[in-house]
Fold this sequence. Notes:
2% strand, two-stranded antiparallel ribbon, 2 strands
Amino acid sequence: MDHENSMEAAKTRILQAALPHAAFDGWSQTTLNAALTDSDIAPALARALFPRGGIDLAVAYHQAGDQAMRDALASTDLTALRYTDRVAAAIKLRLAAADKELVRRGTTLFSLPQHAPEGAKLIWASADAIWQALGDTSTDLNWYTKRATLSAVYSATVLFWLGDHSDDNADTWAFLDRRLANVTQFEKTKAAIQANPLAKALLAGPAKLLEKIRAPKAAADLPGHHKP
Length: 228
């Protein structure tokens, strides 16, 4: 355990030392080299912690933002809010933990074809972190639809936020509210379709198949499994 803690401490030191450099040199090997000089961490240890160099630094920064959001949500009372407003609050806390220039550098990196799957995985992980923090207990198809929907809302909001120059990001929060309102309207429409006797009969067969889909039991089980 002490070894794991020391490794995590070294990883945090390198990441913190990298932040000022990443704003200028992006999430790159140049940034990692500068961080090693500033943090006085042995290069061999850095290679073990960040074997892919800059891309692993960017991943670590994103994951640190997710953890900061979890910590903030754990100390925030959201019980008086509607569920949609809780989701909005979580996204706001997530972006509050981020630096626009560093996120912009990361977005540029993850937009490259070779890194796009990694970027999509990180967005999904952020959506999953939000749902977990909000107490989601779904284990069926809803587990996937919730995260897929929130991934789309979150990624669109991040892109809008990167170009937002309004006071206190007011335009971004208005954009977020509109996206969540669209999702709410979609859910209402879906519920109305499911309540319609004719639609219910037509969808009975596909629904039976979808009922067999289960959420993954562990991270290693992603993206899930089909129950026989």
